[in-house]
């Protein structure tokens, strides 16, 4: 049996630090639970890394770690602050404890000095909050950058040998299914190393909350968000681009300050479950039934997702095709994400 390498991210949250402005949807303290005024120091970074490295289960499993700076605009920090953080992590990389660094940032916060700094340290991936490749959507969200500027910085990062992660949001003001799918195709053209998809949520204390309460913004329903994210995920998977998250990380603070929007703590599972339903429905249509029973096989790791929460897919298939019995069983020869009908 082959060894499986386990990779984990040590996340350092720089709540709104370095951000050139606050976008209409953003309130990092309410999303992450990290106070806006929390000042992260190199010593804090060292402490967080040391705690992760000392965790007994990670030591037993031989986990490989990388450090990620999230929650703010890393390249918008003062240059000396960026270097202090990177230098702190680099020491762990040099002794083999950390494999690399990733940072999240804004597409406009780059210059020659920033590129020189990123190249001087082991920053292997930059996650960009692009959100959309539609200029009207970006303007209404007060992002402060254009689609062309985002595309140019992605190309320049690639030229510098740095991988790129693209964050996309669905359901922003002025957005539509057509625009979100256009952004998906544009992202695929740019060949990112990974993608995150976030349905827009209305958080307390944001400009989007004001628009929502004034009747000037309507968030997506959960059902619409699932359908749209499903199509985006399908396109990215076909292109071989990993989607590493769908929906925001659930936190107590997020749930406490959520005003409206398509939130679910297991958003990705709902999206993938919808994809499994589509595959099973297609199989039912393609091959007529000998009786009112059907059996599907999936990877053991996909059983719960294929059945759906509270057996939703099973019930839906029974109602759709007037079936007496739908069984979804495990087949350890099947790769994840595939379905076989008996």
TrEMBL record:
Any GO BP: tRNA wobble base 5-methoxycarbonylmethyl-2-thiouridinylation
Positions of the Radical SAM core domain: 4-242
Record carries keyword Protein biosynthesis: no
InterPro entries in the record: ELP3, Elp3/MiaA/NifB-like_rSAM, Radical_SAM_C, rSAM, rSAM_horseshoe, rSAM_sf
Gene Ontology molecular function terms on file: 4 iron, 4 sulfur cluster binding; catalytic activity; metal ion binding
SUPFAM superfamilies, A to Z: Radical SAM enzymes
Cofactors named for this entry: [4Fe-4S] cluster
Matching Gene3D superfamilies: tm_1862 like domain (3.80.30.20)
UniProt keyword Translocase, yes or no: no
Keyword line: 4Fe-4S, Iron, Iron-sulfur, Metal-binding, S-adenosyl-L-methionine
Name of the featured protein: ELP3 component of the RNA polymerase II complex, consists of
Organism from which the protein derives: Vecturithrix granuli
């Amino acid at each position: 049996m082959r060894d499986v390498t386990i990779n984990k991210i040590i996340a350092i949250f720089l709540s709104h630090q370095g951000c050139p402005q606050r976008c209409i949807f953003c309130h990092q303290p309410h999303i992450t639970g990290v106070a806006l005024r929390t000042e992260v120091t190199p010593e804090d970074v060292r402490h967080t890394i040391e705690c992760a490295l000392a965790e007994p289960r990670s030591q037993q499993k031989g986990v490989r770690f990388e450090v990620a700076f999230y929650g703010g605009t890393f390249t918008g920090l003062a240059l000396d602050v960026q270097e202090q953080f990177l230098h702190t992590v680099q020491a762990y990389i040099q002794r083999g404890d950390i494999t690399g660094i990733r940072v999240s940032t804004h597409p406009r916060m780059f210059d020659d000095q920033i590129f020189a700094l990123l190249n001087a340290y082991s920053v292997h991936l930059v996650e960009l909050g692009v959100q959309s490749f539609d200029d009207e959507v970006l303007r209404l969200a007060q992002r402060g950058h254009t689609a062309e500027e985002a595309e140019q910085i992605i190309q320049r990062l690639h030229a510098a040998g740095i991988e790129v992660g693209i964050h996309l949001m669905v359901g922003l003001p002025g957005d539509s299914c057509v625009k979100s799918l256009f952004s998906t195709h544009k992202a695929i053209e740019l060949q990112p190393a990974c993608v995150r998809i976030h349905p827009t949520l209305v958080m307390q204390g944001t400009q989007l909350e004001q628009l929502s309460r004034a009747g000037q913004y309507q968030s997506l329903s959960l059902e619409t968000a699932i359908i749209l994210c499903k199509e985006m995920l399908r396109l990215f998977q076909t292109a071989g681009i990993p989607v590493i998250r769908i929906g925001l990380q659930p936190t107590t603070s997020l749930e406490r300050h959520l005003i409206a929007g398509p939130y679910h703590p297991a958003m990705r599972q709902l999206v993938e479950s919808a994809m499994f339903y589509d595959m099973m429905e297609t199989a039912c249509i393609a091959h007529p039934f000998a009786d009112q029973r059907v059996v599907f096989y999936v990877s053991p790791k996909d059983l719960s997702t294929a059945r759906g929460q509270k057996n939703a897919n099973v019930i839906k298939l029974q109602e759709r095709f007037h079936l007496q019995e739908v069984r979804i069983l495990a087949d350890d020869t099947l790769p994840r994400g595939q379905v076989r009908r008996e």
